[in-house]
User: Fold this.
Amino acid sequence: MLKAPILINIPGIHIYWTMTVIVMIIILSVAFIVGKSMKVVPGAVQSFFELIIIMTEYFLREIIGDEGAMYLPLIASFAIFILFSNLLGSIPGFTSPTATIDTTATLALIVFVLSHFMGAKKHGFKYLKKFLGPLIVLAPIMIIIEVMSALSRPFSHALRLFANIFAEEFMVTVLLFLLPWVVPAIMMYMQIFTDFMQAFVFYLLAIIYIALSLESEEMEEV
Assistant:
């Protein structure tokens, strides 16, 4: 498959693992620098991180409710990690960790396990009613449908992010080989826009999936 040359490639270590470590180093470095220089009137970088926190807090409160505040650290971390991972692929010589299904599947499985664990913790045995349907006579059929529906969520959650990031990187790489620099440069600006959108979609879906597991039977009936 056609690939652009990678600047950092450690023998014996998967390239996406290397890219993931690079993203983590970048995030931790930026967080340390911003944390050491917090200002009352924030600069551009501090404002960017504050915007992510404020947006995440807003969506958690609006979609989940007051109990959504406990998920703020995890969901905000998802947003920052996915965004930085996506953007890394926009830099020549690097590739996005989210351009592999391993990364996106891991993130999706975390959301899947957490959402059902918290749903079961909140509702106890009643949580199983979500999989039995409204009528007990339909339970044998509904449980199959509901379980398949629940299992499809992490699959689509992971595949959506992976497919979009992989496709955009591949497209830009092909254009770099086939066309002058002007067209690929325009495509790279579009790629950055897509990187932001895909990070937003993933973390918003994570909030929605958690909310669906936490909602009560009364809410479902309404």
Q: What stands out?
A: The first helix runs from residue 15 to 36. Residues 15-221 form one domain. The two ends are 51 Å apart (CA to CA).
